[in-house]
Design goal:
- By secondary structure, the chain is mainly α.
- Helix 9 packs antiparallel against helix 10.
- Among the domains are: 92 residues, MazG-like (Helix Hairpins, Orthogonal Bundle); 44 residues.
- It is extended, with a radius of gyration of 24 Å.
- The longest helix has 25 residues.
- 72% of the residues lie in helices and 0% in strands.
- The chain is built from twelve helices and no strands.
Length: 237
Amino acid sequence: MRDLRARCEWDAAQTHTSLRPYLVEEAAEVDDAIAEGRDETLRDELGDVLLQVLFHAVVAEERAAFDIADVSGALVTKMRARHPHLYGDGVKRDWESMKAHHRRFIDEGLAKGLPALHRSHRLQDRASGVGFDWPDALGPLAKVREEIEEVAEHITPDGAVRDAQRVEAELGDLLFAVVNLCRKVGVHAGLALDGANQKFVRRFRAMETMAEARGIVFRELSLAEQDLLWDEVKRGE
């Protein structure tokens, strides 16, 4: 990386700011490789993420801020602090509880660019770390039911929305409650939704393929006819 910074015009021109999009892109490609179970691709994409780490470390080194040894050293220190039962006094502690002692507000240090579902999960983890949490999944389950009823209050019997802003707010509360329920049963809402998205795409593609094989234009079918295909695909699974 130091050699590239010295001899490659493009690499030499990069800064922490200009590199920001690449780190996000490379992390997304790692996530895709994991989701698809492609070990060779995962290996390569992890290398690309490592390149970004090294790139930032060398840029920082050039301005005398820190170097790669400082990065790895800080990581070792953090891992030791997170595992006092292995590297400290032998007492196992909840990580969120330990971190809570070092921050003033619940969102302090939490990345602003996190996807909304993941951010919601992390906020609830942090609240749990200071004791603000249901004892089991029954509380969040009841809350989800309550929020559904509050959404329903703003939808008329014929399906119209009474107050768009209120409905948006209530739907946000419902989503937040669903994330909490996911967390309490040991499921990450982002992964659960990703799985549901993949299942929907798989089934929808199967419907489209089935219609094409039968000489039918899918988009010209009525909703009832599309539902029949959907049910057929589900039975086939």
